[in-house]
Every structure is written in C-alpha cells, then in structure tokens.
C-alpha cells in the first residue's frame, strides 16, 4: 500500500551526471503520520558526501532540509492539519524509549536514529529524502514553520540552522559571551546571526577580505584574518566559545589558545583527516575540544521559533531540479554563495 | 636580607648525578609571609621533566609537594601560627587581581602564576622548591593540613591530589556517575579513591593483571584490560567521565566512543607528541576532549579536607635525600610503586 511520487535520484556512486527524475513510493498514512507536499529542499554538503559514499544505497533520493505544506494527517495526529506550514530535517524516526530519546536527543537514539534518506526504517524500507514532490513522516519528527519564516528560508535551517544553534545553546552562549565563528559559509553565516541575536559579541575568523562587510551585515562585531603568530597572540584567551564551521585541516595549536579559561572549541564541519594538537595548547586554558551533531526535535522547533522571532534567515540561491548536478559540483568547488535551495515545483 | 637553609640542588640539565647538597637563601619574612620547616616533599614526574628541560635555570631545587610545620609568621598573618601543620603545592604567587585569580583559579593568572621552583617571583628572584629544610611563602598560598592526614601522606596530595580532584569536581562526578580511570600509577591510584568516595562507580582501565586487586582496594568496582575491538565495543557509551592519567600515546579513536553522550575525556598526563583522533569518534556522543591543570588554592584546601574526612591517602615509598637520583631514574623507568616522598630530616 503506497503512493507514487516524483523525485530526483542519484543512480551511481559519485556520479552527479547520474541524477535523473524518477518515481518513488511513499507509504500510506499510518495513524501517527503526516503527509507533506514538498515545496523546497535545501542542498547540504552532506548530501554531496552521501552520493559519494561507498556504503550508500542507489538509487538514492537525497535531501534533509525540507519545507512544505501538510496535505493529510493520520487518525491519531492532533498537532498538525492540512495546510499547515511544516518542515522535516535530518531524521524521521527513533525508538522514542531510550534515555537519549527521552532527553530529546533523538540523534543519539541508542537503537539508531533513522535518518531521512538512505537509512533503514522500522518497516525495513530504505528511506528516501526531500528531492521529491511529497513525503510521509511520523508526526513527532515534523516541525512547525512559523508564519514569519518564508518556506524557502526555513528549508536550510532544518540542518544548517539546528547544526549551529544547538552548540550555541548547549554551551550557554548569551549576553557577555565572546564568540568566534571560523568560516563564513553555509553554516557560518547562520551561526553568526544566531550568536549575535543571543546577545554575544561575535568575531568572524575568515580567510577573505571580501567577506568583511557581509560578516557585519550578519551581525558580527569584528572580522579577523589571522595569519601571523602575532595575530593569534593578540586574541589569546579571548573567546568563551569558538565554533569551527570549516572542515579543512587547520593548525589547532594556534587556534586553541584563543579560548578563554574553561572555554570551548567546537567543530560542526568534520574534516576527513584526524585532527591533532598538542595538549600544551589547552593546558593553560583547560579548553574543551568537542563536536556537535545537529540537534533534537524539541530544540529544532525552538530554533525555528527563535529564527522567526529574530528575523534570522539563510542567504539562499534558488535553483531548479535540473541544476542539481551543477550545484553539487559548485559545492565541492566552494562556489556556492551560502546555500542552494531547490524549488520543487520544477520537478516535472 | 635572607636566611641560609640547606637544600638539594640539580646542577646540570638532565644529569641526575649532578644533584648535590647545598645552601640556598630564603627571604626574610614579609608581613604576609609564612615560614615553614619542611618535613616531607613528594617527587612528581614533572620534577624529573624540569631537570631535563632545556629552558631551566641551574642550580635548581625541585619539589612542589611540600608538607611541614609553621616556624614563624609575618605581622599581618592571621590564618596561621607557629606549629601549624601546613602544605605548599605547585605555586606560591599570582597577581591576585585578574579574573582568574578572583575566580580562585590562580594557576591561570593572567599575569603569570609563580610556580614554586624555577619561576621568577615578584622580587626578581628565581624560586627554589621543596627539597630543602625550609621555605617562605605568602600566606594565601599555604594550605592547612587536617590532623587526620599524616604529613608524609599529605605531601603528594598537593600535586597528585589536586590534579585528579579538580577535574572530578569540575565535571560534577558524584553519585550515579560512571567514571573510568586510565592508568593506576601515581595519579591514577589517588583518582580512584577520590571518585569512589564521591560516590561514583569506578572502572580502572589498566594494562596489567597484577594491579587488579589493588584497584579494588582503592575502591574501583571494575578493572578492565582493553585489547580487542570487542573489548571496547562492550563498553561503548558507558562512561560519563574518563580521566586519562597516562602520558603515553594511545588510540583515541578506540577510547573516545566509550564516553556517554555529552560526556568528557580528560587528560591529566600530558604526552609530548600531539594527540590525534578522527572527529567521527566523537560525532555520535559529542564527547568533550580536555585537559586539566592542577587546581586553585581554595579547591586544594577543599581537596585536603575531603581526603582527611574520607581516609584517602597516597601509597608512598619514603626515601632519604641521597636516594633522589635513583628515584628519578626509577620514575623514568616506571619502577616507582605509586609515589616517592623524601624525608627531609635526612638532609644534613
């Protein structure tokens, strides 16, 4: 029992030219399901990584930054009704019973969270993501998009937004915090807005003079390009919290001393190589080095509400479904100007 | 204006045979000074490292685990009187005015903490440590040793004790905590006692079957020798807090997944090589990797009081002053059975 919907699927590992329009099956509504007409879907770097991944299933429909309108709800659903503006992010199922799920951290479900595509769901099917006309998702994993947020702006927040909001909240960024954001790309430009609206003094640590003005427009109070040891020395012990949105290798022995005593250096971009540093780099400040992995459903809703209230939105470039292969290549070449969003009405 | 006291000094970098008995100067009492007759001084691995350090000043009197009796106090000192049982640990001066000092974290003084030996004090002299008959220290940096603690047992607590107590407190180890201590040496055997008396379930991760019984005597509820991937898998996500007391290189990609969601992996032993790990090792648990650096004066006093109240003491091997060169070599060769303490009455 299922419904056919149009979708864009990658057919061959690592081959962006293998994307083609196809038809996939969505399950009929269970009592706790929400059916969604997808209007927009963002493209995240991790979509690209999944298409390149050795262990992926093909054909694969990527996409985990989904926004749209409710078309129907199951018999037990009380929190959504047809026409509601909604979003779906990185995951669509979890056990709901383990300590992590009960703590609202479904991403760490002890029985394995079910991600929105290329993941085995509880009925044994492999999930398919947001590059499609419609999706059916258990109500717990559907987010309300506030009226103040345009649907196309909400889409990237479902991954890039929660990925940056979660660590800022987890480490209590607020008034009087001194925060550095490394990198002003798809993640960084949203992180700057969140941190600034939380009341922090925000410094962007960037690589290019061309982004200085944009950093300030997003709310940064300072923009620094660190090159010499003296540049680093001038900011030693300055930051309560550094969020690293750049996946490239970097000299942590230079960056870690920028953290204030007992402060935090947090990765949200994941380099493929091991990170390495000398412990003497953190012996004088007891800095904590950590990583952050998206965020739970309750916090994702709080993030959307905070963004709506504070006029936070990603800078997006809208593309049609046929532009996806080129967009993937541009992301790999760092040519994306913040974030691509696919207009799903172009799926024919 | 100064007083001559006997001491043991190292005269040549890296040459333990260069230790000889000599006479050094201690300053006359300032109004806020405490003069101490040293009874015992522990030997810490970092003493050995300092004698080997390229940047050290010679002759050098090491020693930062000092216990003894007050012999005299300056005119403004109200907290100590002659005859009091006291200790001195890693540092003897700081600015007292910066944010770190005001927060009771003198070790992070923004103007540079003055350590007990081989450090420039505010009068321009180079400090000399505890392998001597007497020392003069500003009252703020002198600790009370509770009556329940023998002076020789208190000595190693001034460094090894606070080094392990501070991170356990900083990360809120207590009842219901699952703690792992890696290594059962000079630091580890004290850490196990603290964690157990704080109410935690303590697992020692050791290398040798021979230490299993001792681990249990110190209060560990479990002892594990991890070798195979299956050994690590069996403890995945098990620990709120892992304290690594071993300075040797280790495979962090195996150890970090043992941490529970949002838990901590903390170094107190400092490897000379960079540490390295893949961020995917902490992407599933958001573990924080950090280091801990002794602890402030207020917490050091709390540590001594906690040790006294809970009958916590180091396992020590008492030696005479002439045994120091051999003790240094034994420490390098990992032949010390927990901790050496020098009986300072052997200094002639």
How would you describe what is shown here?
The structure is a homodimer of 348-residue chains. With 348 residues, the first copy, chain A, is of the alpha/beta class. Chain A has two domains: 183 residues, Quinone Oxidoreductase, Chain A, domain 1; 131 residues, 3-Layer(aba) Sandwich (Rossmann fold). In chain A, 24% of the residues lie in helices and 27% in strands. Chain A is built from ten helices and 18 strands. In chain A, strands 3, 4, 5, 8, 9, 17 and 18 form a seven-stranded mixed beta sheet that branches. A six-stranded parallel beta sheet of chain A has the order 12-11-10-13-14-16. The first copy, chain A, has a two-stranded antiparallel sheet with strand order 1-2. The longest helix of chain A has 20 residues. Chain A starts with a strand and ends in a 5-residue tail after the last strand. At the A-B interface, strand 14, strand 15, helix 8 and strand 16 of A face strand 14, strand 15 and strand 16 of B. Strand 15 of chain A pairs antiparallel with strand 15 of chain B.
């Amino acid at each position: 029992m299922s419904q056919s919907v149009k979708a864009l699927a990658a057919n061959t590992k690592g081959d962006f030219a293998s994307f083609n329009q196809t038809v996939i099956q969505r399950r009929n509504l269970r009592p706790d399901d929400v059916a969604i007409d997808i209007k927009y879907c963002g493209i995240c770097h991790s979509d690209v990584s999944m298409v390149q991944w050795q262990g992926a299933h093909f054909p694969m429909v990527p996409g985990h930054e989904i926004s749209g309108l409710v078309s129907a709800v199951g018999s037990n659903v009380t929190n959504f009704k047809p026409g509601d503006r909604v979003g779906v992010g990185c995951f669509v199922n979890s056990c709901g019973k383990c300590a992590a799920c009960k703590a609202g951290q479904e991403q760490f479900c002890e029985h394995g969270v079910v991600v929105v595509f290329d993941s085995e769901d509880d009925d044994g099917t492999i999930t398919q993501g947001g590059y499609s006309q419609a999706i059916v998702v258990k109500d717990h994993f559907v987010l309300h998009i506030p009226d103040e947020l345009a649907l196309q702006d909400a889409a990237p927040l479902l991954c890039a937004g929660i990925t940056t909001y979660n660590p800022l909240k987890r480490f209590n960024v607020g008034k009087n915090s001194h925060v550095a954001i490394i990198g002003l790309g798809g993640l960084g430009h949203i992180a700057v807005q969140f941190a600034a609206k939380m009341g922090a003094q925000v410094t962007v640590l960037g690589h290019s003079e061309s982004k200085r003005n944009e950093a300030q427009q997003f709310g940064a109070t300072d923009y620094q390009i660190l090159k010499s040891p003296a540049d680093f020395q001038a900011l030693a012990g300055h930051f309560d919290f550094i969020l690293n949105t750049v996946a490239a290798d970097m000299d942590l022995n230079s960056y870690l001393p920028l953290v204030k005593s007992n402060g935090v250096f947090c990765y949200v971009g994941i380099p493929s190589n091991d990170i390495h540093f000398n412990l003497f780099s953190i012996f004088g400040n007891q800095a904590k080095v950590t990583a952050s992995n998206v965020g739970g459903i309750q916090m994702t809703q709080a993030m959307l509400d905070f963004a709506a209230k504070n006029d936070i939105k990603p800078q997006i470039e809208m593309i049609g479904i046929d532009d996806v292969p080129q967009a993937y290549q541009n992301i790999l070449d760092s040519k994306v100007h913040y974030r691509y969003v696919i207009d799903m009405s172009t799926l024919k």
